[in-house]
Specification:
single chain, alpha+beta, Immunoglobulin-like, five-stranded antiparallel beta sheet, three-stranded antiparallel beta sheet, rod-shaped
Length: 230
């Protein structure tokens, strides 16, 4: 009625499952990550500057913003200074051009004056300084004069001296009289136009003037000419 009984095997470890171990490559990778993180933390704590706190970071940022604002201000001032410098250089260039034009005009005028002087009558006396022309006028009790002096030949440097005017005429009492005016310093290059005025004695009426060019007051005569006062 009953069949043959089969043996029942009892496993004393039947309630336990075999544990799965982590793969070696995963263990090595995790170990490497841990070592890397530890190394970074070690280097940072040992050799690198300490990390800033929140307050220090805020102060550093504020300092940076102030420095950046100052940089922008200085950059603006530099741009403005550069603009003014460019304007000054342009003005200087324009002035240099204008000066060159003026120098050419002055040279042309000098050449024209020299040509006109060459057309004037020569000084009859052959002195070191020639009195080429003169003009006199009595204005308010003073003698106004304009005398043109010149030199011939190659002029190396101006010749210094004085011009002495000796005026002959009638005094206030009607007698003949001579008045020596104060010497006037002159420096004669190719030519020199001497202008001025000197007071005359009250009532004196000039008729002619002797123009003397001397190397110094009372010194050597360099040129002389007598001209009438009109």
């Amino acid at each position: 009625m009953f069949g043959q009984r089969k043996p029942v095997l009892f496993n004393s470890y039947g309630g336990r499952r075999r544990r799965r171990l982590l793969p070696r490559w995963l263990v090595l990778m995790l170990l490497g990550v841990a070592l890397g993180v530890g190394g970074v933390i070690f280097v940072q704590e040992r050799y690198l500057p300490k990390r800033l706190s929140a307050t220090a970071s805020a102060d550093l940022r504020s300092s940076f913003e102030r420095a950046d604002a100052e940089r922008q201000r200085l950059q603006g001032e530099l741009a403005e200074t550069t603009k003014r410098l460019d304007a000054a250089l342009a003005e200087r260039k324009a002035m240099a051009t204008e000066l060159g034009t003026s120098n050419e005009t002055v040279k042309r005028l000098r050449d024209d004056v020299a040509s006109l002087i060459a057309l004037l009558p020569a000084d009859p006396r052959s002195g070191a300084v020639a009195v080429r022309a003169a003009r006199f006028a009595v204005e308010g009790g003073a003698l106004a004069y304009e005398v043109l002096l010149s030199r011939e030949g190659k002029i190396v440097k101006p010749l210094g001296g004085v011009m002495q005017l000796v005026v002959a005429g009638q005094s206030g009492r009607g007698s003949e009289d001579r008045v020596a005016l104060d010497p006037v310093p002159v420096s004669v290059g190719t030519y020199e136009n001497v202008r001025g005025s000197a007071p005359l004695p009250q009532g004196f009426r000039p008729q002619q003037t002797t123009i003397q060019v001397l190397d110094k007051p009372g010194g050597k005569l360099l040129g002389m000419r007598v001209m009438y006062v009109k």
